[in-house]
Amino acid sequence: MKTANAERAARTRQRLLLAAAEIFDEAGYEGAAVTRIVERAGLTLGALYFHFGSKQGVAEALMNAQATTIEPHLESTGLQRLVDITLVWAQRMQHDPILRAGVRLAVEQGSHGMNDATSFEDWRKLMRDLLETAQADGELEEGAEPDRVARFVVAACTGMQVYSQLATGRADLMERVCDMWRLLLPSLSSDAVRANISVDPQRVPAT
C-alpha cells in the first residue's frame, strides 16, 4: 500500500509529465524551457529536478511512457490486439498530450542530441509478443516471422504519423492505419482468420 508521501510524489510526477508533454508537443524540445514546464504544472524547478534530474530526463520519461497510454484501453488478444493497439494509438494521437509528445520527441530526438531507440524497441517487443501469441494460436501464415512483422509495423506507423501530421494535422491518421492493415493482413493470415479480424475505428471507445 502506498504511503501518503508516495501518493503525493506520484501525483507531482504525473503533473510534471503532463505539463511537460503539453509544452513539448507545442514547442518541441528546444522550445520547451523548464521554467515553462514548472509554471504550467504549478510546481517548482526543484520538483522537476528531483523527479527527473533534467529536461532530458523528462523527455526520456515521456518517450518511454507511450505504450502505457494505450494498453489500458485494450481487451483483445493475438492478432486482433495488435490491430487494436494501432487503432487506439491513431485515435489517441489526436488528443493525448503524453502520447503526442512522446512520439514527437522520439522522432525528433536527433535534433537535440539524443540517440535512444528504446521507445521504438519497446513497441517492437510488445508487437512481437502479440504476434508470437497469434502464431501459437495458428493465426499467422507460415513464413510470417513475428519479429520482422513487428519491426515493419513500428516503422510504418512512425512514417505514417509524420506524413499525416504534415498533410492533415493527423486528421487522416486513423484512415491510414486502417489502409495499412487492409494491405498487410492478407500476407499475414488466411481468409478464415481475417474474417474474424476487425479493422474498424469504431472498436476504439470514445474518450
UniProtKB/TrEMBL annotation:
Source domain of life: Bacteria
Record flagged with keyword NAD: no
Domain HTH tetR-type: 10-70
Alphabetized InterPro entries for the sequence: ArpA-like, CprB_TetR_C, Homeodomain-like_sf, HTH_TetR, Tet_transcr_reg_TetR-rel_C_sf
DNA-binding residues (ranges): 33-52
UniProt keywords, alphabetically: DNA-binding, Transcription, Transcription regulation
Name this polypeptide is given: ScbR family autoregulator-binding transcription factor
Source organism per UniProt: Streptomyces sp. 900105755
